[in-house]
């Protein structure tokens, strides 16, 4: 009798242990699935995630995600409020390529200025010194080639002069081998414009930038996938629009050769093609 009780007790203990092991195994399995999911989510392409987050922000709030720091590519994640990671920095070789382009453009301007000096010596008052109309400098985002509008366009026009087309083409030839993305940014002064073609300065600035891009693409051979256009109108002045001199400084077109780390925030070509 006592033996039967002992066997029943041992069977009950064995059954309880098996139930505990099954529960433990289920818990381990669930934890493993959880960590696999977390790892998979961490591998999501950041550019695709940023695009989705931005689209959701527009739909839910009517506003796109903001940029915290205009000096660097720090987009804000509209869901968590955490800063998106930066792309990789420039390598010495990439910086060397930008420096070489900067030197080539400086030499191009110097050569054209020498030609202008010869023209002046021969009594040609119509010559133009490029150094008076083109400024080349470097910012955190990349190399900037800034053109005064008087070198490129007639007043109130978006059409490049024949000489301007040659200048843009020749400078574009210096950029064609670079792998960097290139932005062309149009700027105006704050004098209002209201015509059938240009209802505001935005349209004028966009069309001027667009015509420069066409020369870079069609005449200099820079791939269209590397080019983009921005029209800022009067809203990104270099200096306050206080007089004719300051307004002339603000009317400009900038060719911006972006540093490679900013590729991180450019839409991938595969995402824009059907």
Any low-confidence stretches, pLDDT <50, length ≥5?
54-87
User: By CATH's scheme, which homologous superfamily of the domain at 92-270 applies?
Assistant: OmpA-like domain
Mean pLDDT: 78
The number of helices is 8
**DSSP, total strands:** 5
Strand order of the largest sheet: 1-2-5-3-4
Estimated radius of gyration: 30 Å
- Architecture of the domain at 92-270, CATH level 2? 2-Layer Sandwich
List keywords for this structure.
elongated, 60s Ribosomal Protein L30, Chain: A, 274 residues, five-stranded mixed β-sheet, 5 strands, single chain, alpha+beta
Description of the structure:
The protein is an alpha+beta fold and 274 residues long. It has a domain at 92-270: OmpA-like domain (60s Ribosomal Protein L30, Chain: A), CATH 3.30.1330. It is built from eight helices and five strands; from the N terminus they run αααββααβαβαβα. The chain has helices spanning 2-42, 46-61, 92-121, 149-152, 162-175, 201-218, 244-250, 269-272; strands at 134-139, 142-148, 182-187, 227-231, 252-258. Strand 1 and strand 2 form a beta hairpin. Helix 5 packs across helix 6 (201-218).
SSE map:
Elements: H1 2-42, H2 46-61, H3 92-121, E1 134-139, E2 142-148, H4 149-152, H5 162-175, E3 182-187, H6 201-218, E4 227-231, H7 244-250, E5 252-258, H8 269-272
Parallel strand pairs: 3-4
Antiparallel strand pairs: 1-2, 2-5, 3-5
Helix pairs in contact: 5-6
């Amino acid at each position: 009798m006592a033996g039967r009780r002992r066997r029943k007790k041992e069977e009950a203990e064995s059954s309880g242990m098996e139930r505990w092991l099954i529960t433990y195994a289920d818990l381990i399995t669930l934890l493993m699935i959880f960590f696999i999911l977390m790892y998979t989510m961490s591998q999501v392409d950041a550019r695709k995630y940023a695009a989705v987050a931005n689209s959701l922000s527009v739909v839910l709030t009517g506003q796109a995600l903001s940029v915290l720091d205009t000096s660097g590519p720090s987009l804000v994640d509209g869901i968590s409020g955490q800063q998106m990671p930066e792309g990789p920095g420039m390598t010495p070789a990439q910086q060397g390529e930008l420096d070489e382009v900067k030197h080539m453009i400086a030499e191009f301007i110097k050569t054209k200025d020498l030609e202008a000096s010869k023209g002046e010596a021969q009594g040609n008052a119509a010559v133009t010194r490029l150094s008076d109309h083109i400024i080349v400098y470097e910012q955190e985002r990349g190399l900037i080639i800034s053109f005064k509008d008087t070198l490129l366009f007639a007043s109130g026009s978006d059409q490049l002069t024949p000489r301007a087309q040659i200048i843009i083409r020749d400078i574009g030839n210096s950029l064609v081998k670079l792998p960097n993305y290139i932005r062309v940014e149009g700027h105006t002064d704050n004098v209002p414009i209201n015509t059938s073609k240009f209802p505001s300065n935005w349209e004028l600035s966009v069309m001027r930038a667009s015509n420069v891009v066409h020369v870079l693409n069609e005449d200099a051979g820079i791939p269209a996938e590397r080019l983009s256009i921005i029209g800022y109108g009067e809203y990104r002045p270099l200096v306050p629009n206080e007089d004719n001199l300051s307004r002339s400084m603000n009317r400009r077109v900038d060719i911006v050769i972006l540093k490679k780390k900013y590729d991180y925030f450019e839409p991938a070509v595969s995402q824009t093609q059907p």
